[in-house]
Amino acid sequence: MAYDFIENNSKAAELRPGSTSSDPVEPRLRKIVHVDMDAFYASVEQRDDPTLRGKPVVVAWKGLRSVVCAASYEARKFGVRSAMPAVRAERLCPQAVFLPPDFSRYKAVSLAVREIFSRHTDLIEPLSLDEAYLDVTENKTGLPTATRVAGAIRQQIRNELNLTASAGVAPNKFLAKIASDWRKPDGLFVIQPHEVEFFLRDLPIGRIPGVGKVTEEHLATAGIRTVGDVQSKSLEDLEASLGRYGHRLFELSRGIDPSPVVPNRVRKQISAEDTFPDDIPLQATVEALRRLAEKVWKASRANARCARTIVLKLKTKEFQTLTRSLTPTAMPTSDEELALAAVSMFDRIPLREGQLYRLVGIGLSNFQNDEEPPLFSAATENEAIPEQLLYPA
Ligand SMILES: [Mg+2]
User: Fold this and answer.
1) Is the whole-model pTM more than 0.90?
2) Is 372 designated active site?
């Protein structure tokens, strides 16, 4: 495969004199890299403890409701996967070394990886501790192609951090993300602009971001199994069966994804929640709230911004979610006060005889200024990973 990725932008501009930036026909050609560390938490553990190398390693807390945070490739051979219940992983691979996650260490490594990215571009959008999008349309080192930039980043991660990363290079984010997964682990895959159509045609529809199991089955009943099948449907048909997502899918199937790489993604909430091993009454959640308040408080201290709203979240035994929020004139000044503020919202929870709860959470939101890089993204961002994964009971 030719590894000279994407013609120079200035050349592309010269080819179409008179075109403006709002030209809808020929949008500016971008060079996006998606970098994804390989089995990140498990790899850090194996790197730091040589006795773990070559062995199946599973990063997970002990506990019935705990899930796998990361599995080394040796463990994956046994079918162990991220987000699978830890007890299942133990059944599949009883000889694996199980380790509790050490997020402060992973975060430090993640920052070192980010420092390497920043040598090449300032347009970095971290998705979690181990993944990021980079816009290298203009890169800081003068490397002629995005492929060379991705190669240099992978080499620097290997040489300086003794870890491997996979990278995908493409003209947009969604293709770059698919590409980084294509040659995993320790791989590089490039989708050049003229290859997009061919690449997408036979791609199983489940590989498209946003197409989960349910959508996949729904589409299969309509005879849609590959991206090529989507291409043969009209926009109206797709919107009729999938609503707003139908429009997005229509564009993605044609390789269109104008979403920009957004540095400093804004965190909307710092929160933590616990799922209890057994469902418990409201008053019994206080102890858990205290622990969670301590964690949220700590995370908020590392944050330059000030929250103005406190959120209490409960989930009943019947899976009904209740949230209450409080925006006091004076915010708590300690984790104990934060816990008390959360407990003070109990009287706004409808009192039902014998009601039991399976989950409690506490959060801070409504931040005063919105400029802060998501250093805590994986640990505290709402959508990144379920909090119980990070703060188990
Ligand atoms: Mg990864």
Assistant:
1) no
2) no
